[in-house]
Amino acid sequence: MKIWSHFRFDKKERSGIFFLLLLILIVQGIYLASGFLFPVKEKEVKEEELNAFRARIDSFRHRERKHDTIYPFNPNYLSDHKAYMLGMNVAEIDRLYAYRQTGGFVRSASEFAEVTGIPDSLLRKIAPYFRFPDFAKKQRSKRPDRSGRAAAQSRAIQDLNRATARDLRSVSGVGEKLSGRIVKYRDLLGGFFLDEQLYEVYGLDSVTVQRIMEQFRVVESPAVEKLDINSASRKDLASLVYLSWEEAGKIIVYRSAVDKIKSIDELRKIEDFPDEKIDRIKLYLTTQ
């Protein structure tokens, strides 16, 4: 059987193939030419529409600026949302609420800072907007004793660093999970230096912390070997609970720039370094 026999066409078949190819070429030519002969016009934006759009953007910006405005307020009645917007963290807000629940009333900016523990930088920012009622200035402060001496008189205070999970469960509101978290966090720190470090335990609200401190306090500070900030590696610094890997890196960069860190307070000079952590890391670092 010859292959070429399949490609033999008579005159009519050849004409049909020719006209089919011609038709395909014509259609292709029309399609390509249409892009040049009839270009797609971009939609023209009228000047009025553009101005209206710009006006809407300006209105949104104005709303944002208005939202950021701080109005005078009584700090004793801060809501969670407003306190957060002002820059306070959860622990600081909880301390204020715990103090108010005991019947205390803040009567000055300095007392507000003492109760909440907010950093000086934040206090300078929001203190000008504090407004206290006249009677608060006249009455003597009724702030409760936060040292725990009254509780100590009624019952023996136990050492928080020696308390077992079972001991802690004797406090109302502290169950198996919370007592376990307290012990675990204490071990992670190497021991509590301050009673207030209880506020850092996940899941502990301020009311429960107050109950714990009625029975347990830091009687004996832990024997923790402090890290020398001038010789510690980035890994060593990041091993501290209060320092992230990024923050440890910033300390190393600053140390290299100044040759030697003479005081832990120098860390406040580091850009974007959290001031509120400095008082805590002082407990675990030394400049030697």
Judging by the overall fold, what is the CATH architecture of the domain at 149-217?
A: Orthogonal Bundle
Estimated share of beta-strand residues: under 5%
Unreliable residue stretches: 135-154
CATH topology of the domain at 149-217: DNA polymerase, domain 1
Pfam families: HHH_3 (PF12836)
InterPro entries: Endo/Exo/Phosphatase_dom_1, RuvA_2-like
Protein name: Helix-hairpin-helix domain-containing protein
Could you describe the 3D structure shown?
This protein is mainly alpha-helical and 288 residues long. Among the domains are: 75-138, no CATH class; 149-217, Photosystem II 12 kDa extrinsic protein (DNA polymerase, domain 1, Orthogonal Bundle), CATH 1.10.150.320; 227-286. 49% of the residues lie in helices and 3% in strands. The protein is built from 14 helices and four strands. The chain has helices at 11-37, 47-67, 80-86, 90-101, 109-116, 120-126, 134-138, 149-154, 165-168, 176-189, 206-213, 234-238, 245-258, 278-281, and strands at residues 158-159, 216-217, 227-228, 285-286. The strands form two sheets. Strands 1-2 form a two-stranded parallel ribbon. A two-stranded parallel sheet has the order 3-4. The N and C termini lie far apart (102 Å). Residues 135-154 have low confidence and may be disordered.
Labels describing this entry:
mainly alpha; Helix-hairpin-helix domain-containing protein; two-stranded parallel ribbon; two-stranded parallel sheet; DNA polymerase, domain 1; Endo/Exo/Phosphatase_dom_1; RuvA_2-like; 49% helix; 288 residues
